[in-house]
Structures are given as C-alpha cells and as structure tokens.
Design goal:
The complex is a heterodimer of chains A (263) and B (237).
Chain A lengths: L1 H19 L3 H21 L3 H26 L1 E6 L7 E3 L2 E3 L1 H13 L2 E6 L2 H10 L4 E7 L7 E3 L4 E3 L1 E6 L17 H9 L4 E6 H7 L8 E4 L4 E8 L3 H16 L2 H9 L2
Parallel strand pairs in A: 1-4, 1-5
Antiparallel strand pairs in A: 2-3, 5-11, 6-11, 7-11, 8-9, 8-10
Helix pairs in contact in A: 1-2, 2-3, 4-8
Chain B lengths: L2 H27 L9 H11 L4 H9 L1 H24 L13 H23 L8 H19 L1 H7 L2 H25 L22 H27 L3
Helix pairs in contact in B: 2-3, 3-4, 4-8, 4-9, 5-6, 5-9, 6-7, 6-9, 8-9
Chain lengths: 263, 237
C-alpha cells in the first residue's frame, strides 16, 4: 500500500516535470519515467497485463519514437568555417565571440548545439540545402540571399584584398570569396606562396600576425557586418537569435564580449 | 500572441487541469463504482475457454470484436504513417549513429533476450500476463535497438519489407476470417473453434493461442514498418 501511494504521488510530479523541462530530451526522459511509474502502478493494482503493455509501448516504444523525432528539431546544427576570434578551435575546445552567442541562444531556446566545420564556400550552401540550420564563422550580411535569414549585424567589419607574389590567376580577387579553409591561407602566407583572396576583418587581423610584406593589401570599399545565416525553414530559430541578440545589446553584454575577443 | 493574451488563456487551462486532477483523486479514493462487477461470471467464461489468464480470455474470446477493432486501429495507424511519410519522399541513404562499442555490445546481449521475451509474452499469453499486443510491441522495439546499433539498412535487408507488409495484411484478413467463422457458427463463447485443452498446458485455451500468435506477428511487423518508415524518410536514425 505504501508503495502504491508513493507511485501515485510520483505520477503528477513526473508529469509536471515532463511539462516544465526546458530541454526536449529531458522532457522525453521524464515522460518515459512517467510511463514506467504508471506501469508499476498497474502492476501493484494487480493488472500485470496492462503493466506489461504500458512498459512495452509507453516506456519503450513511444519514448524511442520521440527521441528519433527530436533528434533533428531538438538541436541547432551549425556549419561554420574557422574564423579566428569569431569561431575557432583551441586545443580540443571551440571558442570565439560567435560561439558564445550560439551557446547562449541554444541555452535559452533549450536546444543542443552541434557544430560542423566546412570549407568557406560550402557554408551558406549547406544551410540552403537543409544540411544545417545556421551558418556562422565570419558570415557577412551580404552573403545571405535566398533561403537564408540574416540575424542583423552583431559586429561591424571590413573586407581586405590580399594579393601576392607570383599570383597567376585572375587579377581581381573580388571575383570570388574565400575558398577552402582559413588554415590553408595561413599556410600559404607562411610559405610566401601565391595568393589572391578577399578576407574579412577578423581573418585579416589573424593573418596580419604573419609577415605580409610580400603581399599587396587593399581595403575594399563598403561597410559590412558579421551575421548568422539562419535557414529560412527555421523561422523559430531566427526569432530566438533576434531576441537573444537584442537582450545582449541592451545589457551591454555583447560589447563586453566583443572587447574580450577583439581588444 | 502577446504576453497578456497568453496569460488569459493559461487561466482556464489551469482551472481545467486542477479540476481534472481533483476529479481523478475523487474517483480513485471515494468513488465506489457502479456496484460490484460480476467477476464470477467472467471467471466462468474464462474457464470454458481453458485459459488461465482471465484477461486474455475476455479480450480474445468474450470481447473478441472489441479487440479486432483495436487491431484494425493499429493497422490504420501503420497505414497513416506510410501514407503521410511517402508523400515526403524518402532519402537514399540512412545516416546512422557512429559506431559505439557499448551500444554494439549491449545490442548483441539484449536483442536475443528481447526477442525471446516478445515470443514468450505472445505464446504464453493465455497462461501468464502478456499477449500478442505487448509481445509484438516488445519485439518490435527490440528491432529498433538493433537498427540503432547495426544501422537501419542492414536490419532492413534481413527483413523483406514488401513481403512483410503483405503478410501483415494477410494476418489481419485471417483474424477477421476466423472471427467471422466463429460468429457465423454462432458458437458461445464466441471463439471456441478449437478445444479448450488442459488448462495450464501450452496447447490449451482454444483459439486464444492462435489469435495471440497472429496478433503478435502483426504488431511486430507493424511496429517495425512504422519505425523503418520514420528512419527512412528522415534519412537518419
């Protein structure tokens, strides 16, 4: 009888827990526990047949179907190309201004964050194809076109053309954006190889730590801003980004973060 | 929706919830129900079928038609999953969870046990708690575990889905055909097509064992078909 009372008290508690969890995966686990407790209740009330069915269907099958269903919606898939200061690998961690913003948005939205690195030219396409929800790592407002929602610039930037020795290709680097990985460009500069590329401010700052004397550097006209490129199919996410960025701007948190990464 | 509007809608919902909770408490502790049910009559019915599990005897004999419609509901659910997912088109390859030793090992250990449990629950449904529904669902969920550990494609290769789906509907027809014969013969209790046998033996309980096996196979196939469609159309597990 005491066991039954405990289970009966536990039922509404678990139900409330399932309803109030912020993270969907926790809510599903709470729901599975609810089913399991319910199965225990049936068993103590001498209905073992119902208890078996409840644990097979409610606790096992329904829980797994829910887990399968939220595997995509329960997380933000970010595709990014490495951009020092914005989003970079540091030992086995990921750091950077944009990464911190992403982590905050994920936390307030109750979603898990997963990150894939891709060559720069693939980043926007991956979001457009639906392979990722958000493009990050030095995405400029101007890059966002069809099917991509920009979140409004969170940091102003500029563009630099870097052209250098023995470059045999087309002379105008504006013909194409940065292709491949930023680390390849760093390698090229260190070995003083031929190069013709347009870089944003964050990457240019990182590159100017190396000796650029052999290269022509030109600041291109126009004002630009960094943004996140959210898939048009995820308007809910876009709203989360807009709200969180507005909050961070209001509280001055964003400026403090920027000062930390770009002193 | 503005914040105040959502608060106004929240109030009736909260009242409704609290009311429902109180009603449930009252029903649980105070409400005696519409008199004593005639348990003795049900147990008598169960005995005539030769089944030890009274619950099985009721839902696969005296209330067989209720159960048949529930089987039909399950089939319609499977059909609905197929119908709406087929509209979305399927992905060519299924992305699986990265190989993990723990997952692989636990699947190797658990899968045979789960399938055995499913078969046991189904076949012993007339002797102990269980039955076709829970046995089939348990075994089907076991296949989901296998799909997670071994990859959906390799599990699907071992189960020929197009044939399975036909088998599933053939079983449904078969169950309805058997029940139809019982009804046409006017037997009471309804499904005494087979002799009750010695209660306690595996081969007893009249047609209950037969129905359990048929329903168990059907639910097993249906569960896997549903899970596999979900996996295939999302392109990942």
């Amino acid at each position: 009888m005491i066991g039954l009372t405990i289970l009966l008290v536990l039922l509404p508690v678990l139900a409330a827990a399932a309803l109030t969890q912020r993270r969907r995966s926790s809510a599903i686990i709470a729901m599975g526990l609810f089913s399991f407790t319910l199965a225990g209740t049936y068993f103590l009330l001498q209905a073992p047949d119902v208890a078996i069915t409840e644990s097979a269907i409610g606790a096992a099958l329904v829980t797994s179907i829910y887990v399968l269903a939220i595997r995509k919606t329960g997380r933000i898939t970010v595709v990014a190309s490495e951009a020092p200061g914005l989003l970079q690998r540091e030992a086995d961690r990921i750091t950077g201004l944009e990464w911190e913003i992403l982590e905050r948005v994920a936390r307030t939205a109750g979603l898990d964050l997963s990150l894939n690195f891709a060559p720069n030219e693939d980043v926007i396409d991956a979001v457009r194809r639906g392979d990722a929800d958000v493009a990050a790592g030095g995405v400029l407002s101007a890059d966002c076109g069809d099917g991509i929602l920009g979140t409004g610039p969170h940091l102003p930037t500029a563009r630099y053309a870097v052209r250098g020795p023995r470059w045999a290709g087309p002379s105008d680097p504006r013909a194409g954006p940065l292709r491949g990985y930023f680390s390849d460009i760093v390698e090229t500069v260190r070995s003083r190889g031929p190069l013709c590329v347009v870089l944003d401010l964050a990457r240019f700052l990182a590159l100017s730590r190396y000796d650029l004397s052999a290269y022509d550097v030109e600041q291109l006209e126009g004002s630009h801003g960094y943004t996140f490129g959210v898939s048009a199919a995820r308007e809910d996410l876009h709203r989360h980004f807009a709200e969180e960025l507005a909050r961070m701007r209001e509280s001055g948190e964003l400026d403090r973060m920027i000062a930390r990464y770009f002193p | 929706m503005t914040r105040s509007a959502s608060r106004i809608r929240l109030l009736p919902a909260a009242i409704l919830l609290v009311g429902a909770f109180c009603a449930a408490l009252w029903l649980t502790f105070d409400y005696a129900g519409p008199g004593e049910p005639d348990i003795a009559r049900w147990i008598d019915t169960a005995h005539t079928t030769g089944s030890i599990n009274v619950v099985s005897a009721i839902y696969l004999n005296a209330r067989l038609f209720d159960t048949l419609l529930e089987v039909l509901v399950f089939s319609v659910a499977v059909l609905g999953v197929r119908f709406y997912l087929d509209e979305r088109g399927r992905r060519e390859s299924v992305e699986s969870i990265p190989e993990s030793h723990v997952l692989r090992l636990s699947s190797d250990l658990l899968l045979p046990l789960i399938l055995l449990l499913g078969i046991y629950l189904t076949v012993y449904g007339h002797l102990s708690p269980g039955g076709g529904f829970s046995g089939g669902a348990a075994a089907g969920t076991g296949l989901l575990l296998a799909a997670i550990a071994l990859g959906a494609d390799s599990v699907a290769q071992r189960f020929h889905e197009s044939i399975l789906e036909r088998v599933e509907w053939a079983i449904l027809l078969c169950v309805f055909f058997l029940a139809g014969i019982s009804a046409a013969l006017g037997r009471t209790p309804l499904t005494d097509l087979l002799p009750p046998g010695t209660p306690g033996r595996l081969a007893s309980g009249g047609s209950i064992l037969l129905y359990n096996i048929l329903i168990g196979a059907k639910v097993f196939i249906g569960t896997w078909v549903m899970i596999h469609h979900f996996i295939q159309h999302r392109g990942e597990i």
